From TrEMBL:
It comes from the Bacteria. This is Glycoside hydrolase family 76 protein. One of its GO terms (molecular function) is hydrolase activity. Pfam families: Glyco_hydro_76. The keyword Hydrolase applies.
């Protein structure tokens, strides 16, 4: 219980804001809404047993796991990182909470996996849990968060953790013979998995280029280009958008998810930074334009899961840092406005019809609102 106040220090005032929907046509500023979403998240999902962990659902029910799975937890971790990076005192006061959630992140870390390489498992490890399977994309989001934290704090530990996660990713490259489109990083270590996904390859490429830009070790860039080229050859459509995954039998799942479009934008921006080759920035623009046409102008973005959209818009802001264009910030804020007005329940949480509120959805809106309040110069630190 002793650790709880660091994450709840600002709940009272922010919850008062969360409960007030304002007058017609008005809404609190992005930074204020980030605080409100986060205060509601802490009140509803923090377990409060000194572990720093969260529940996955609200309201809780008998039979629920005590602690959330890794993917939702990682997004709550990223939410605190984004809050801590808001300008001035607003961000600085989240430093203790960020330290706490970073320590709790390690409760999913296993020193081994089915490939013999350490990584984050889908559930907390002993003594709090049994760990369960390993998902490569889950680990990639944590790796990218570690890089963001390193760029923010310039600390050696974040870089060490990001390197360790990339070692895991390298072990996930498929060596299975006879596959259509051989290669690719697999989605999960589950024995029945045959999928290789955009989300298990493009974030790997993004992490690899980030590590190259920090360390200048050529092997990171070479691996990143391998993941990037495989995904483009296998899952990119002619319009620049990306399908979700390819199955072992060669069947491609064509669904267009927002995060699968945003991450390739970010990868291309970082490759442009790493190589100086203008074709990468041009490709980032092409993918971004195609995604805007379908998801934003086409009105589909609101039907996408909030964590997918948080990742999508952050990568568009990374492009905006390169182009100095601000239209994507407006689109992100418009999305945030609609979620604030239409999807906020009486507890101040994101909720969709027919299901309970989930940690990951409110964490995503914390991220979107916090980053909306950042200085534009800091967009360069995003995924």
């Amino acid at each position: 219980m002793a650790a709880l106040p660091t994450r709840r220090a600002f709940v009272g005032g922010a919850l008062a804001l969360a409960g007030s929907r304002g007058t017609a046509g008005t809404a609190p500023a992005p930074g204020a809404r980030a605080l409100a979403w986060h205060a509601a998240l802490e009140k509803a999902f923090a377990v409060g047993d000194g572990t720093g962990l969260y529940r996955e659902y609200h309201p809780p029910r008998a039979g629920d796991e005590r602690y959330s799975t890794e993917w939702p937890f990682s997004q709550a971790h990223v939410a605190l990182l984004d809050l801590a990076m808001m300008p001035g005192a607003a961000g600085r006061r989240f430093a203790p909470a960020l330290a706490q959630v970073r320590a709790a992140q390690q409760r999913y870390w296993s020193t081994t996996s089915t490939t013999g390489v350490a990584g984050h498992l889908a559930k907390v490890v002993a003594p709090l849990g049994r760990g369960d399977d390993l998902y490569y994309d889950d680990n990639m989001w944590v790796g990218l968060a570690e890089v963001q934290h390193h760029l923010f704090r310039r600390d050696a530990e974040s870089l060490r953790r990001a390197r360790a996660i990339f070692a895991l990713i390298r072990s996930g490259w498929s060596e299975e013979k006879g596959l259509p489109s051989p290669g690719g990083v697999v989605w999960t270590q589950k024995s029945d998995n045959g999928d290789r996904n955009t989300v298990s390859n493009m974030p790997a490429a993004e992490l690899g280029v980030r590590l190259y830009l920090i360390t200048r070790e050529r092997a990171y860039l070479d691996d990143a280009l391998r993941y990037y080229r495989w995904t483009n050859a296998t899952l990119q459509r002619r319009d620049g958008l990306y399908a979700d995954h390819i199955k072992r039998d060669g069947t491609i799942e064509p669904r267009v998810w927002s995060y699968n479009q945003g991450v390739p934008v970010g990868v291309n921006v970082l490759l442009w930074r790493a190589t100086g080759e203008g074709r990468y920035l041009a490709e980032a623009r092409r993918i971004a334009a195609a995604s805007r046409d379908q998801l934003v102008a086409g009105g589909q973005v609101d039907d996408q899961p909030p964590p997918f959209n948080a990742i999508y818009f952050k990568n568009l802001l990374l492009l905006a840092d390169a182009t100095r264009e601000r239209g994507d910030l407006d689109a992100m804020r418009g999305y945030a406005d609609r979620m604030w007005r239409r999807r906020r329940n009486a507890a101040g949480l994101v909720q969709f019809a027919g299901r309970r509120a989930e940690l990951i959805d409110t964490a995503a809106l914390v991220q979107v609102e916090a980053v909306s309040a950042w200085r534009p110069a800091d967009w360069a630190l995003l995924y």
